[in-house]
Amino acid sequence: MKQFLNTLFVTQPDVYLSLDGDNIVLLKDQEKLGRLPLHNLESVVTFGYTGASPALMGYCAKRNISIAFLTKNGSFLARVIGESRGNVTLRKEQYRISDDETRSALIARNFITGKVYNSKWVLERATRDYPLRIDVEQIKSATSNLTSTMIGIRQVQDLEILRGLEGNAAVQYNGVIDYLILQQKEHFYFNNRNKRPPLDNVNALLSFVYTLLANDMKAALEAVGLDAYVGFLHRDRPGRASLALDVMEELRSVYADRFVLSLINKKIVNEKGFSKKENGAVIMDDDTRKTVLKAWQQKKQEKIQHPFLKEKIAWGLVPYAQALLLARYIRGDLDEYPPFLWK
Torsion-angle region of residue 295: left (phi > 0), alpha (psi -120 to 50) or beta? Predict the structure, then answer.
């Protein structure tokens, strides 16, 4: 159980939620685990299948406290809300911003600022941790260019210019990421980002983990009442969760890329779990996919200090923290959306 930004997160999958007076009660096998007053809460997010009592759902619906139900792995199931005025107001403002490219750019540049900042510090951390095993000079050159790009991003009010700067930053970052692969170099190397299909083992891992992160981000946005399919940087495309792709940009390097590097460097995966098809596509076998999924769930339990909230939360709750902060910005409760800045 974790509470921040007036949202209660119930992360144990076998906890039943019930009502006692004006309080939410958490039960496991009829044993009371916790009790909290509901008047302090705006929403409840619960991971698992055990559920909530009709009395609690009715109480929360009447008082406009949303309850979001997710699987224990974080996939969105459903969201119970009362009168929809709050949710409609939030989404209508989201759509207004999305329709205005200048306003979209002002939010999108914060996503990309977070992405470039975190990419820089992933590289900087490597120069500190492995100074004798990597090309420090090359990496320092890349981080210097990322710093310059970040300064330019902060001034941008045009989406096309922003995309150009993001692309330049990606070239700098991707050009040196191979230095961070310290083990199994014969079978795991990164020359460039390729997808649809991935053409090497590293890109196969990245594509799979990015999909996991995108699904977690989509569930987080839906849980707070935002439309995951209407973005600001990524424009509308049928079937694409554009806003999820927007917000996950700042988490790609620091969350997903570092996770993939750890799988390789700790030899959690190896070349035997990958095969190449006739068209050049590289795919993972089922056992490797299960290994990655297990490691991803373990990663989501690791604690981190959130840079804006100044609270320790699990990595798996970071997408929810950012979704809540974005919703607060769109509602006008924050002057600016604060990207996740890791160091």
Answer: alpha
* Secondary structure class of 320 (helix, strand, coil): helix
Radius of gyration of the chain from Cα atoms?
21
Binding site annotation covers 249?
yes
User: So what's the architecture of 7-85 in CATH?
Assistant: Ribosomal Protein L15; Chain: K; domain 2 (3.100)
39 is in an annotated binding site: no
The first and second tokens of residue 270, run together, are: 């190896």
pLDDT of residue 83: 61
Spell out the alpha helix ranges (H) of 224-310. Answer: 242-248, 258-265, 286-301
β-bridge mates for residue 282, sequence order: 276
Other beta carbons within 10 Å of 144: 12
Average pLDDT, stretch 304-310? 93
Domain ranges in the chain are 7-85, 91-331
What pTM does this model have? 0.83
**In terms of Cα–Cα distance, which of 257, 226, 260 is closest to 243?**
226
Q: How far apart are CA 205 and CA 292, in angstroms?
A: 9
Domain 91-331 in CATH 3.50.50.60: no
How sure is the predictor about 99, in pLDDT bands with cuts at 50, 70 and 90?
Answer: very high
> 172 and 160 in contact (C-beta within 8 Å)?
no
234 is in an annotated binding site: yes
DSSP 256: I
